[in-house]
# Entry
Amino acid sequence: MPTKLNRREFVGTVAAFTLFPLEEQRAELVLHNGNIVTMNAREPRAQAIAIARGRIVAVGSDADVLHLATASTKKIELGGKTVLPGFIDAHSHPAEAGVMHLRMVDCDLRSIAAIQAALRERAAKTPAGEWVLGFKYDDTKTSDGRPLRIGDLDAAVSDHPVQVEHRGGHTAYCNSLAFQKAGIDEKTADPLGGKIDHDATTGKLSGRVAESARGLLEKAIPRNLTRDDYREGVKLISKMLAKTGITSATEAQGTPTDLQAYQDAREAGELLYRAYCFINYRHIDEMIAAGVRTGLGDEWVRVGAMKLVCDGSISERTARLSTAYEGRPSDYGILVMTEEQLYTYGRKAHLAGWQIGTHANGDVGIDTTLRVYERLQREAPRKDPRFRLEHCTVINDDLVRRMKALGAIPTPFSTYVYYHGEKMRYYGAERLNHMFALRTFLDAGIRATQASDYPPGEFVPMMALQSEVTRTDTKGNVWGPKQKITVEEAIRVGTINGAYASYEEDVKGSLEAGKVADLVVLGRDPMKEEPSTLVTIPVERTMAGGRWTFEA
Ligand SMILES: [Zn+2]
# Structure
């Protein structure tokens, strides 16, 4: 049933009704009779919205906005449907994932046999001797109850080197030929910050490599992707994101190649979301030398923060913790970079005016990262550095207090509780009340964001809402109920807070005059939905910059 807004809900909004400068007022498109949730505190609800040249020119009641329509204005009657600002995925790897979807075997499958079959099929179509690469493999989601072993991969494909990346991206599984090509054998020493796993009984290679040991393999894999492939990757992932209501995403581990791909896709009219492209610390010298820093670009493609990595991952259980993993009393996870390395790169970027985003999952990782940020601000204070803690998963009161003092921004995983429930037992019930800690962050006045980390996590915003509101996984287990937030708070986290994390809160993240016309039309109202079915709310249309990027 179409819902008409009560007249009284508009009392007090008249004064807030604002228009953009006169010459912009000729509305090209008016959406009306909607249930518009604006995320603008001065005018939280509206019925209509007028758009011209990719921007919002007016938001208000039907009466206020419809009179801006001229004979040439297109009008869409929303039938009471709910409209939200477009979702902002503040930490994800879309360009990287797009290329993976183009070229690699999707191993998000439910048995080792199914993965073997998919690799075998790809090998049959691959020229002899060339690599067969898989991604999105998840050891906790196969029915076998054990991880992939080198023997499984050798049995599937023996005449091609094979590497299957874990969904989390921090570990990979290889066949014998892959190790041979990389010059790794049983006696190869673990590189600093990495691990080459051995079978506990035989001492032979198990097939798994973790963290920086992945670099030894990466060096052996030829990267024969063309500039066009990277553009195609962005085009492919653009459609996947738009379908779910995402209008902006941060490329959290970007490179100059990604930046080029975004510009190419945009020029070709294929970029359907706004990209905030982080630059990995390995490229920071060349970027600084070229005079580039955070903020360069425009509303579609912008240079983001420099990315550093402090510790391991949550989904692969390598995050660095102060107390050991459940059932593994001597396993505390991995630190990937030393504090001194983080500081050296951090200082360089900080002095050159870059925002910094450091991957920090475990409480030890977060503590280390905060110490580096505190030192940078002490030695060279900057006005609004908006230091970011990428993921910022396992927290405590001291860490939260220091984050608040620094104005640091956490980007906790939004869909993990719902989607990765089977991994939660490694952390334990008590620790889960201090993980993905949105309730704690919001109560402390910290602007946490929505973040999928795709491919490691799912990016569907409606799944993020359900996960954050219910803290319940797909099997009905509740994990860390103290961190539940409301639907309205979850929407704020996924919209205006994401804009703040990229210094764009004046440009996007809410529906108000002057901002870009990025929005999503939903089939049902999330505020009225039973929380356990939020994920089933259909996205009917997505708009970015005044253009429909998805229509069901
Ligand atoms: Zn990431």
